[in-house]
Structures are given as C-alpha cells and as structure tokens.
Amino acid sequence: MSAAAPLLFPTNDANLHRAAAGDHDAFGALIRQHQDMVFSIAWHFLHDRDRAEEIAQEVFLQLYRTLGEIESHAHLIFWLRRVAANRCIDESRRGRWRIVTLDEANEVARDANDSDPLLTRKLGQMLQRLPAPQRLAITMRYQEGLEPSEIGEVLDMPLNTVKSHLRRGLGALREWLGVKP
Amino acid sequence: MNFEDGLTRALARKPAPDGFADRVLARIEVPRHRTSTLRRIAAAIILTAALGGLTAHQIIEHRRNEEGQRARRQLMTALHIASAKMRAAQRAVVHD
After folding, report:
1. Most buried of A167, B6, B31, B49, CB within 10 angstroms?
2. CA atoms within 13 A on the CB side of A172
3. Interface of A with B in 16-55 (CB under 8 A)
C-alpha cells in the first residue's frame, strides 16, 4: 500500500498553549491549520459537504472545551482524528447518511475505466457503500497516510481488526470496480 | 493509474469551505461575548444601585445629625436664656 499524505506535521506547542490560555487568535490559527484534515475525514465518510462541515465544526467546538487536556501538537492531531472519526460513526448510527444504491454502484463500475479523474471521483462515491469501520480505516490509510498500527490507535481497534477492515474494504472496492488484485 | 493511486487521489484532503474557521469562532465567541456582556451590565446595575442606596442613606443620616445638633444648640440657648431670666427675677425678688 502506498500512503500519500504526510505523516509528520510541524509542531506548534506554543500556539496550542496560547489557545488553551484563551487566546482566540491562536485557536483560530489552530483551526485553520487542521480544518482541511478534519473536514476531509467527515467529507470522505459522508460525501455530503454541509454535514461534513457541521461535523467538523462540532469537532473544533469540542476541542475548544477540551483544550486544557491536550498535551502537545502531536496529541492534538491524534485527538482531532479520533474525535472526527467518532463523530462520523455517531452520524452513521443515526442513519442520516446517504446510501449509494446498487444501481448507482453499477453505474460507477461501468464508468470507472473511462478516465482517471472519473475513477477518482467514483472511488470516493464507492467508499460510501463500505461499512463505517472499513471506510474510516481506508480514509485514515489513504487520506492521512497512517500505518495500520496508528489507525488502530486512532480508531481504538486491535491491529488485526484494522488489517481485516483494510483488506475487506479494499477487496470490496476492487470487486465493485472490476479491478484485479 | 493503478487502483491504489486512484484511491490516494480520491481520498486526498479537500479544502474546508471558505470561512470555516470564522464560523467556528463565531459559534464560540457569540455566546461567550453575550454572556459576558450581560454579566457586566447586571454587575454594573447592582453596583450602581448599591452605591446609590449607600450614598442616599449617608446623606439622610448626615441631615438627621445636623438637625439634631441644631435642635440641641437651640435648646441649650433657650435653657441659658431661661436660666438667666430666672436668676435676674430671683435677684429682683431678693432685693425687694
């Protein structure tokens, strides 16, 4: 598996401490620094821009109330990924997420080989058919570039469970798209 | 493009909507600011009322004291006058 997103992030503990001390400008800077990550986790899970923003906003509002417990910038990133993932799972349990029908999926599979941008777009849509844990594991792997052990920490899953979710999720996507392993 | 490259591209981070951070900050700051402002207004009203009441009470007490002192002085003056008249009358009776 290849991982594209960077694993390392610039540390900015001073900014974090200023935000924890009530500096709103520093908190605004933290939001701007990590908003794409949080929004994208929700977006790839829900494929709904408005609800992805709603979830991402709630994650940062929760962060604001929890800032005193965040020990470092690395902890902050871990916390944001975990809370974003949990919020997504909560959302899926409410049953409000959009379900891609089998017909839509077949249409996707037919179009998948037409062009690369289309494959990219359709892959994103196909993800919606996967069960929530598989979708999150794949998102953490390919969006965030995390190793399975790191995914296990973020999603609070044993390593073998993460590997199983990745294997099954990727297998399903390949099958739907008619891609040979 | 192979399957995993396609997946990596499909799952690349998307930019958050414009103004996202400002909207989050607004949700934090509006209630805090409103609560803080209301608390300040309430505290100012209470403080003003307390200070006003205390001041009025002190003014009234001061006036009462002054009136009491004035009445006391008038009474003493009256007593002195009465006493002087009595002594003068007594002396006149004794001489007669």
Report:
1. B6
2. 15
3. 24, 27-28, 31-32, 35-40, 43-44, 49, 53
Instruction: State whether B4 and A36 contact (CB < 8 Å).
Output: no
The model's pTM is 0.67
Closest to A100 (Cα-Cα) out of A121, A125, A124, A123: A125
Question: What pLDDT tens digit does each residue of chain A (181 aa) get?
Answer: 444 444 444 447 888 889 998 898 999 999 999 999 999 999 999 988 999 999 999 999 999 999 999 999 999 999 999 999 999 999 888 765 555 445 544 444 444 444 466 777 788 888 889 999 999 999 999 999 999 999 999 999 999 999 999 999 999 999 988 877 7
From the list B8, B20, B27, the residue facing A61 with the nearest CB is: B27
Say which CATH class A13-93 falls into: mainly alpha
CATH C-level class of A102-177: mainly alpha
- What size, in residues, is chain A? 181
For chain A, which residues make up each domain, given as ranges? 13-93, 102-177
Could you report the predicted ipTM of this complex, rounded to two decimals?
A: 0.78
The shortest C-alpha distance from B45 to chain A (Å) reads 27
